[in-house]
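4.2 Preliminary Data

To establish feasibility before requesting continued support, the project team ran the inverse folding procedure on a target of 417 residues. The structure was first converted into the token representation described in Section 3, and no sequence information of any kind was made available to the design step. The complete token record follows.
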């Protein structure tokens, strides 16, 4: 009810705050854009008003009165559907901690992406009473992903943030204790394991599931951040489908960049590979496939100086490149830019305690989520540098919970309360 009233209030305010022609004609998409997106571009990926476009897909020309009527109806629709709401509402609805400064649990889950949420669901259904510490970015990388079309169970395109809101709601419904806090210290050399957080809480856990994920490395230029999710992506597998018949670019020179460029040829009409050196680091076999492909053009010795695009609607139109040796600038027209310069697993907390590979990914026993310490499990991108998909992370979260359940049962820890 609160959300419905809030949306009605916003609708009324918008109708007074935005001046549209009296005889306004246009699609609902254009109307919503005029009402919301022009004022605050961030609303496009966060508010239910933009999702009206995604789910209801009204394409017929409408008068202003008809458009506004549908706008009002959308407020009711998305309120009932637990839709994504503005930052102000999200801030007020943050999950509150309900525990003392010290707490004991059978299963402690660190991380709140698909792996962490899936682990929590299975652990809760096994009556293990899990605690999940979400970190500073609840929901993981999907919260900055717009269109999602490859997650099973949804015939229509869904929004990444909305998907994570639904997962979180399910996690809470099955009985997981959610904690909005950041883990700062982990001691895996004692039993039970000890975890300390930013807010001064201490947890002792019979088992721990690590689902802290991995972050894509970015170029760290303002225009890249500005267009992230609107033409700038860190995952060709996730977003390549949206560039059928279009021109795209890939930044990088390693195996990941070459593989993503080759993958994008399945959709794009042309693929540029931008590399800051005069030779690739990728495997020789991959290099040959790349250089022999008729759709791919490699531009050597360049760095992306700026991502070019529009703000209304927000989209990418090209890139400005800077030659790394001469400093010369050139512009390339394209519709999408994929940054493939690697990922950084969030594993700093576990150094000198858990086995990791040279890139910092946690090493698990093949076919399981077991780390080198019994009772500590790793799920999702924190241990997977190959697939890095939401669905594989969710699957690994399920496996981690089942592995934890068996571990607790083996040592009769599941019976302790």
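Position-by-position output of the design step:
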């Amino acid at each position: 009810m609160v959300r419905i009233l809030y949306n009605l209030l916003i609708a009324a305010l918008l109708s007074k705050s935005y001046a549209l022609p009296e005889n306004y004609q246009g699609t609902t998409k254009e109307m919503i854009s005029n009402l919301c997106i022009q004022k605050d571009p961030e609303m496009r990926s966060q508010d239910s008003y933009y999702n009206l476009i995604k789910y209801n897909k009204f394409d017929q020309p409408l008068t202003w009165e008809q458009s506004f009527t549908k706008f009002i109806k959308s407020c009711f629709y998305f309120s009932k559907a637990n839709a994504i709401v503005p930052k102000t509402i999200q801030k007020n609805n943050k999950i509150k901690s309900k525990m003392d400064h010290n707490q004991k649990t059978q299963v402690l889950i660190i991380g709140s992406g698909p792996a962490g949420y899936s682990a929590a669901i299975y652990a809760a259904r096994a009556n293990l009473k899990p605690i999940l510490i979400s970190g500073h970015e609840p929901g993981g990388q999907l919260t900055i992903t717009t269109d999602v079309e490859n997650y099973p169970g949804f015939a229509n395109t869904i929004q990444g943030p909305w998907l994570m809101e639904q997962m979180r709601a399910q996690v809470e419904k099955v009985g997981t204790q959610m904690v909005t806090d950041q883990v700062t210290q982990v001691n895996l050399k004692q039993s039970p394991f000890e975890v300390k957080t930013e807010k001064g809480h201490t947890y002792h856990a019979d088992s721990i599931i690590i689902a802290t994920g991995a972050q894509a490395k970015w170029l760290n230029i303002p225009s890249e951040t500005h267009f992230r999710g609107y033409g700038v992506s860190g995952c060709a597998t996730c977003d390549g489908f949206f560039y059928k018949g279009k021109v795209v670019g890939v930044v990088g020179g390693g195996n990941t960049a070459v593989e993503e460029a080759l993958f994008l040829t399945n959709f794009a009409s042309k693929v540029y590979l931008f590399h800051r050196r005069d030779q690739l680091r990728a495997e020789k076999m991959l290099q040959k496939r790349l250089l022999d492909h008729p759709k791919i053009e490699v531009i050597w010795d360049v760095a992306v100086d700026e991502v070019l695009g529009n703000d209304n609607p927000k989209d990418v139109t090209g890139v400005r490149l800077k030659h790394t040796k001469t400093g010369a600038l050139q512009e390339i027209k394209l519709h999408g830019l994929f940054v493939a310069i690697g990922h950084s697993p969030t594993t700093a907390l576990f150094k000198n305690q858990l086995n990791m590979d040279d890139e910092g990914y946690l090493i698990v026993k093949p076919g399981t989520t077991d780390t080198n310490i019994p009772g500590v499990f790793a799920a999702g991108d924190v241990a997977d540098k190959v697939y890095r998909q939401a669905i594989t992370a969710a699957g690994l979260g399920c496996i981690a919970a089942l592995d934890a359940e068996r571990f607790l049962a083996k040592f009769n820890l599941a019976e302790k309360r």
